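Collaborator request, handled under Task 6.
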Amino acid sequence: MTVDPESAEAPTASTPTDLREVVREGYARIARGEASSCCGPAGGCAVPDAPGLAEQVGYGRAELDALPDGANLGLSCGNPTALAALRPGEVVLDLGSGAGLDVFVAGPKVGPSGRVIGVDMTADMLARARRNAAAYRARTGLDNVEFRLGEIEHLPVADASVDVVLSNCVLNLSPDKAQVWREIARVLKPGGRVAVSDLALLEPLPAGVVASVEALIGCVAGAVLVSETERLVRAAGLVEARLVAKPEYVRALTTLQDPLYRAIADALPAGRSVADYVTSLDIHAARPRAGRASCC
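Structure tokens returned to the collaborator:
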């Protein structure tokens, strides 16, 4: 997630509604090709070498080559479709689907008898994903993907209707993560599973860094501790929680001289790096099967 701290002044977000609107507008600007930022009006979450970053976080070259042009905006911090081990016939839901990267990767895996639903709160991004869907159908011969407008805190999906929930570097942006996890539990079928890649903190960022990142509506500022993420997963009633830190994403952006991460690094105590604080996190969990109670 890149941002240019020297570019135009970013808006502030003093309430959850403000934060949501700033993120929405940032993604809309990406979708319209006006910016490369979800973090503010002129910075970015996308990187110049989107395919290279995607490979570093776990996508195969063949998967990337098969995508519609413009589906990969460099917004990923992992590969949740690989985590999910998708099977033919499954119904998959992607939270914060953007231009459709993970939807289009998942579609061939679930095949003609399956379905992949992308949900995004940004109308411009949704329009871009739907245009990409036409290219996907032409290339694969599959008509098994769709995109719906909605917020991940209030999913436009029926109860117990989804086999797998995916999300890629989006949950950290939500101002109400507990509600997101409750919604995930609600839409999953009994025995359904979660495969999420997200940003998380290994330890709290110094106060000065948090303040500077929040001024940019930085994507890192919304991340919570790994332990807090696990607590939210379990509090939603999900079981079999397994969280795996994946440092490759932060290392890749450090190598790419990402401006946001460079700005954070410059504000850290001497001898500390961004990777000491921030990680990409693979999150696995499941809804209990019918008749099985969650113990924790």
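The cover message to the collaborator said: "Residues 1-13, 37-48 have pLDDT under 50 and may be disordered. Strands lie at 91-95, 115-120, 145-149, 162-168, 188-201, 239-246, 278-286. Please let us know whether this matches your experimental observations."
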